[in-house]
Amino acid sequence: MTTSEPDRPSGRRTFLARLSAAAAAFVATPAAAAAGPARAASAGDEPEAWLTALTGTHKQLFHSHDRLDGTVLFQAEHFVNTYGKAYGVAPGQVSVVVAAHGKTGVMLLQDRIWEKYEYGKRFEVTDPRTKAPAVRNPYLAGGKATSRARRRR
Question: What is the pTM of this model?
Fold first, then answer.
């Protein structure tokens, strides 16, 4: 049996750090994105280094593991937009991380991955345009399940 070194991040932790940084970049508003990209932790970094990439004064983590409906993405985007309007917070002063795992993790994957692994069929997600099992990610592609579309309804 092997023991892990306490000062070295596990592969899983490094993966989750990179996924969180990618999710944070996804939900950033265009003005917030102009503040600079989040840096993901690498294998040599300290285990919680990804937290330093969150440079905003106001930070929030949104967690999802069982609702594959875009809700967590809507909540994260709404948080960023509301903070700016309600509290006069400048773009880039709000940092958001979406921790999506289990079946909800597929909300953050590219269309080519959805097509290759048939996530629409596997998770019973219908493409709003074709009414068939989704072969593209409707949560990132502007489908009815995305936060922008939900806000228009």
Answer: 0.61
